[in-house]
Design a protein that fits this description.
Layout (H helix, E strand, L loop, with lengths): L1 H22 L11 H14 L2 H32 L1 H14 L4 H12 L3 H25 L3 H9 L4 H36 L7 H10 L3 H29 L6
Helix pairs in contact: 2-10, 3-4, 3-6, 3-8, 3-9, 5-6, 6-8, 8-10, 9-10
Length: 248
């Protein structure tokens, strides 16, 4: 409840400040519309039937890309961290890929997969995968040697050591990677929808730009912010319950 109260107070103060600035004439309302104008634009989009449909399409794309990227990131992160030949072969390649943003791969994704859903899934999966892999690899690579020696002295086999020592020790880093991956899923979602899409939040922002509807552009930005904040809050709650030893 304290976190929710903090969020409400923070957002309330921000909206008051925003409203005061927008009504004072200090900024051009065509560039930075007032919160009430953005609210009316969201109602207009809802009445047009595109607000909910865009949200549904974008959530589906983000969910599929996040699920695929997370699964591959955790799996490969555990392999590169614990199996030396795999890490030796793949670390250089993955570290070269990490600085390449999804938006730079968008034209190539369209060439490979067309303008349909597969290209969008690819871009989101790619971004999430690298973030989750990096955190998983780091966490599983830096398991305290005392844990390993203790498990071996107690007669734990390789698989039992892996599942009962390595994964629990790396779990806080894996969860952090998943939280980061969830945020990046929405970031890459916009990159994916700005090219070759006919629906979705990113597409609606791009369409609104063409008609200079900054109020509708801000509706999309608010949607992305609220979705990302809600998802991060959910991950925090899951982390506190599932990876409870992180708090000690």
């Amino acid at each position: 409840m304290a976190k929710i109260a903090q969020f409400l107070v923070s957002m309330g103060l921000f909206l008051l400040l925003w409203t005061g600035v927008s009504t004072s004439g200090m900024v051009n309302p065509e560039f930075i519309p007032a919160p009430t104008t953005i609210l009316m634009a969201s109602v207009e989009l809802y009445n047009d039937g595109v607000l909910i449909s865009d949200l549904s399409v974008s959530l589906q794309r983000a969910a599929v890309g996040f699920a695929l990227g997370s699964f591959l990131g955790v799996l490969l992160g555990l392999l590169t961290s614990r199996i030396r030949p795999v890490g030796y072969a793949l670390h250089p390649l993955l570290n070269v890929l990490r600085p390449i943003p999804a938006i730079a791969l968008a034209p190539l994704a369209i060439v490979w997969f067309g303008i349909g859903e597969p290209s969008k899934y690819f871009l989101i999966t790619y971004t999430v995968f690298l973030a989750v892999w990096l955190n998983t690899d780091h966490g599983a690579s830096h398991v305290a040697s005392t844990y390993i020696r203790a498990s071996r002295s107690l007669g734990a086999g390789t698989w039992r050591e892996f599942f009962e020592v390595v994964i629990p020790a790396a779990a806080p880093h894996i969860v952090s990677g998943l939280r980061l991956g969830a945020a990046l899923a929405f970031l890459s979602l916009v990159a994916a929808e700005l090219t070759g899409a006919s629906s979705g939040i990113g597409y609606r922002i791009q369409e609104s730009r063409q008609f200079f509807r900054t109020d509708r552009m801000f509706v999309g930005l608010v949607e992305l912010g609220l979705l990302g904040g809600l998802l991060d809050f959910i991950f925090q709650q899951i982390s506190r319950r599932v990876v409870h030893w992180e708090q000690t």
